[in-house]
Automatic annotation (TrEMBL):
Cellular component GO terms held in the UniProt record: cytoplasm
Keyword Cell division: no
Provenance organism: Malaciobacter molluscorum LMG 25693
Superkingdom of this protein's organism: Bacteria
Pfam family of the protein (one): SelA
SUPFAM superfamilies: PLP-dependent transferases
Reactions the enzyme catalyzes: L-seryl-tRNA(Sec) + selenophosphate + H(+) = L-selenocysteinyl-tRNA(Sec) + phosphate
Protein name in the entry: L-seryl-tRNA(Sec) selenium transferase
Family: Belongs to the SelA family.
Subcellular location(s) per record: Cytoplasm
E.C. number(s) listed in UniProt: 2.9.1.1
Keyword Transferase among record annotations: yes
Gene Ontology MF annotations: L-seryl-tRNA(Sec) selenium transferase activity
Length: 448
């Protein structure tokens, strides 16, 4: 009982000068919790003395843990450029600086400067997309899943949407096309088989309740062997003949030709637009290399109908997204592709990657064992499924540490590596040039 009387009172304890630069509200909350725990430990005979200095240090430590942002910068050494778990496409500081004045000030997000009246937030992006893709009109929502849902809800509520069985995809987070269709109010009509779908399947399935012929990008898988699918160009022709809407969910859309023949099975947005589709949608933060967004391109009369859907207000994007997306699309228009990190990484030569690997290896010779390896990596983010690109990696070995232990030590210092063939690899396909010296410093700190 004597020890209980020694427990400091909260109101006096928090007046300690060491806390004067901290939030008194949060310090008070933590102190109450720590003192309650102290009382419990005394009653259960876990402690036999009170150390106020230790209590103070624990309170400050807890305070710092609480206010430390959980969202942190990491170095992506996995080789996966569009890494969904690591934020997908990067944004350059140059692009961010260009829009900083706009987003940190009042702006004309929904104000027409020419007419002096209320404007439309989507108008800022339409002109850019028209010049870039040749579309009639455009709309931007918060991601491509939203775009899919909004289109189906607008045009196919209680109506049929025809989709090939081979395209009923499920992507990350259990996002399934059949379930999204159900939630949107659309009625799914499956055609063909898992591996084969023909033009006649679409033609025979159309009836008076058909609204959309939908084609879905196979984001994270491919069907090989005895297969056939109907090309988008043919689906568009059938839709026009039958007076229904054609819609292509591209998933990951890209503007320019990709290296390593990656776009052999994935035509660019510009190629698709040559077919004069009714509607297409794609992600902003995948191969386009911009921010998270769902971009819808298509016929003006259809875009106008989507804008009237009350759900649009729930799915719209803010000034930051619009500003950055417009900045990146302007980079495409001006041919300044160096401002798109995703493309830069894709096009970086093996020779350049090898130079970076050699530089790190030379600086770590007295720290750990390193070996330069020629290997391959995936682009990621549901793009170009099963298509690998060549890369250079550096294996890291230290004493008798197992790969899992090395990977964990690097991860706890915000370097995200990968394990391949029982070796920890730093893959330079996704490592920025500006991160090379940082990697050296971190590894020297980890493996002292």
């Amino acid at each position: 009982m004597t020890l209980l009387k020694q427990i400091p009172k909260v109101d006096k304890f928090i007046k300690n000068k060491i806390f004067e630069n901290y939030s008194s509200k949060l310090i008070t909350k933590i102190t109450k919790e720590k003192i309650n725990k102290l009382r419990e430990d005394i009653l259960s005979n876990k402690i036999n003395k009170i150390e106020e200095e230790k209590l103070t240090n624990n309170i400050i430590k807890e305070y710092k843990n609480i206010i430390k942002p959980s969202l942190q910068k990491v170095i992506n050494a996995t080789g996966i450029i569009v890494h969904t778990n690591l934020g997908r496409s990067l944004i350059t500081k140059k692009s961010f600086d260009k829009v900083k004045d706009i987003v940190s000030s009042y702006n004309n997000l929904e104000y027409d400067l020419k007419e002096g009246k209320r404007g439309e937030r989507y108008s800022h992006i339409v002109k850019t997309l028209q010049n870039l893709t040749g579309c009639e009109d455009a709309l931007v929502v918060n991601n491509n899943a939203s775009a899919v849902f909004l289109i189906l809800n607008t045009f196919a509520k209680n109506k049929e949407v025809i989709v090939s069985r081979g395209e009923l995809v499920e992507i990350g987070g259990s996002f399934r096309v059949p379930e999204v269709m159900s939630q949107s109010g659309a009625i799914l009509k499956e055609i063909g088989t898992t591996n084969k779908t023909h033009k006649k399947d679409y033609e025979n399935a159309i009836n008076e309740n058909t609204s959309i012929l939908m084609k879905v990008h196979k984001s994270n898988y491919s069907i090989e062997g005895f297969t056939s699918e109907v090309e988008l160009e043919d689906i568009i022709k059938i839709a026009k003949e039958k007076s229904v809407i054609d819609y292509y969910d591209m998933g990951s859309g890209h503007i320019i030709d990709l290296p390593y023949n990656l776009d052999k099975k994935e035509p660019s947005i510009l190629k698709i637009m040559q077919y004069n589709p009714s509607l297409i949608s794609f992600s902003g933060d995948k191969l386009l290399g911009s921010v998270q967004a769902g971009v819808i391109l298509g016929k003006k009369e259809l875009i106008d109908q989507i804008k009237k859907n009350q759900l649009l207000r729930m799915l719209r994007v803010d000034k930051i997204t619009l500003s950055l997306l417009q900045e990146h699309l302007n980079s495409y228009l001006k041919g300044q592709l160096e401002d798109i990190p995703t493309l830069q990484m894709l096009y970086t030569t093996i020779e350049t990657l090898e130079q970076r690997a050699k530089y790190i290896k030379q600086n770590l010779e007295n720290i750990c064992n390193c070996e330069i390896i020629e290997t391959s990596s995936l682009i990621g983010g549901g793009t170009t499924p099963n298509r690998k690109i060549p890369t250079i990696a550096l294996s890291i070995e230290y004493k008798d540490f197992k790969p899992n232990k090395i990977e964990e030590l690097l991860r706890k210092n915000n370097i995200i590596a990968r394990i391949e063939n029982e070796k920890v690899l730093l893959d330079f396909r996704s490592i920025k040039d500006s991160e090379v010296d940082e990697i050296i410093a971190i590894i020297k700190k980890v493996f002292k």
